[in-house]
Fold this protein.
Amino acid sequence: MAWGFGTWDGSGVYNNTGLQPVNVLGYVQIGDGVLDATYAFNVPAGNSLRFIVIPDSSQDGTGNNRRQIFVSGNSVVVQAAPNNVAGPDRFPTYPLYIIGYGV
């Protein structure tokens, strides 16, 4: 390997696969303050739904209001979350986009 970086499993076998292709299934825009919504995606057989969040605001994301965003089956669910609780599924209530993809 001349450039970049490598990864190996516990047995010493090289396993760096580089960039992985994904199947973008669609996107939804979630408005300011939305705390209760479900967005269904058409997920092909053999794929599982995942998502990324892209902010659509100039706000810094601080403050008390939070929402939880997670996958349930073929849907992305948005619901209220306790204030001041951090976690990988917690997001501010300002506008954002959710991009659903299958892997």
The chain has one domain: 24-102. The chain has a mean pLDDT of 87.
